[in-house]
Amino acid sequence: MRIVFLGPPGAGKGTQAQNISKEKKVPHISSGNLLREAVEIGTDTGIKARYYIEKGLLVPDQIVVDIIKDRILKNDCTNGFILDGFPRTLSQAKVLDEMLKELGNKLDLVFHFAVSKESIVLRLSGRRICGSCGSNYHVTYVPSTRDGFCDKCGGFLNQRADDKPETVLERLRVYREQTEDLIAYYRKNGILKEIQSDARIEVITKNILDTIDTLSEKKYLALE
Ligand code: AMP
């Protein structure tokens, strides 16, 4: 199953990607996480990407495309993946289609997470990420048992620098300007599914799993 999660920052894509990745045993690939790792380690890519990330701007296509290409070619992606945060521009979407075509594959589903601006601000300001294993928390909606520490690995929980209100507003503007076009692109391809992401986390996870299972059944029946 090759899936893309599309939606504004704070729509809950990362949380859902973690849940679905666990259920369906395919890797969760977050372009944002890969870029932040590169920044942390201080690779050439990370040094270039840092400037854009801190300003809430998109990192140039070539940098992100190279990182995603390397990741998708790893063995654990043979049976599929969940892409979160990539593609974000029409040209990235076209490169992804080409990349998959060369591998004899294609995208199965694109989930579009729709959410109000008010919810986004609430979600992002309370979001905390484990510095060691990357698990997502929220101070109100998904608190950790021990304040400030990850339930899964005991790592410190941090707030992302670009979750500050000014940067969030810039990220939302960039999303509207550069990423919203992708909704029409994937709708035209017939693989877009709308997800109302103001609902409870478990309800959204179930909706996504039901949609994936329905598609898998259809594929299975078509093969019979
Ligand atoms: P995210 O964790 O998905 O919110 O991404 C955090 C930041 O990483 C974004 O604000 C961008 O600066 C950068 N980024 C992540 N994914 C992409 C992408 N597909 N294209 C360009 N920049 C990206």
TrEMBL record:
Signal peptide: none annotated. Pfam families: ADK, ADK_lid. AMP binds at S31, R36, L57, L58, V59, G85, F86, P87, R88, Q92, R160, R171. Transmembrane segments: none annotated. NCBIfam families: adk, PRK00279.1-2, PRK00279.1-3. Monomer. Residues 127-162 form the Adenylate kinase active site lid domain. GO terms for cellular component: cytoplasm. This is Adenylate kinase. Its EC number is 2.7.4.3. One of its GO terms (molecular function) is ATP binding. Zn(2+) binds at C130, C133, C150, C153. It is found in: Cytoplasm. Keywords: ATP-binding, Cytoplasm, Kinase, Metal-binding, Nucleotide biosynthesis, Nucleotide-binding, Transferase, Zinc. GO terms for biological process: AMP salvage. The gene is adk. It catalyses: AMP + ATP = 2 ADP. It comes from Candidatus Jettenia caeni. Pathway: Purine metabolism; AMP biosynthesis via salvage pathway; AMP from ADP: step 1/1. Catalyzes the reversible transfer of the terminal phosphate group between ATP and AMP. Plays an important role in cellular energy homeostasis and in adenine nucleotide metabolism. Residues 30-59 are annotated as: NMP. Residues 126-163 are annotated as: LID. ATP binds at G10, A11, G12, K13, G14, T15, R127, A199. The lineage of its organism: Bacteria, Pseudomonadati, Planctomycetota, Candidatus Brocadiia, Candidatus Brocadiales. It is an enzyme of class 2 (transferase). It comes from the Bacteria. Belongs to the adenylate kinase family. Consists of three domains, a large central CORE domain and two small peripheral domains, NMPbind and LID, which undergo movements during catalysis. The LID domain closes over the site of phosphoryl transfer upon ATP binding. Assembling and dissambling the active center during each catalytic cycle provides an effective means to prevent ATP hydrolysis. Some bacteria have evolved a zinc-coordinating structure that stabilizes the LID domain.
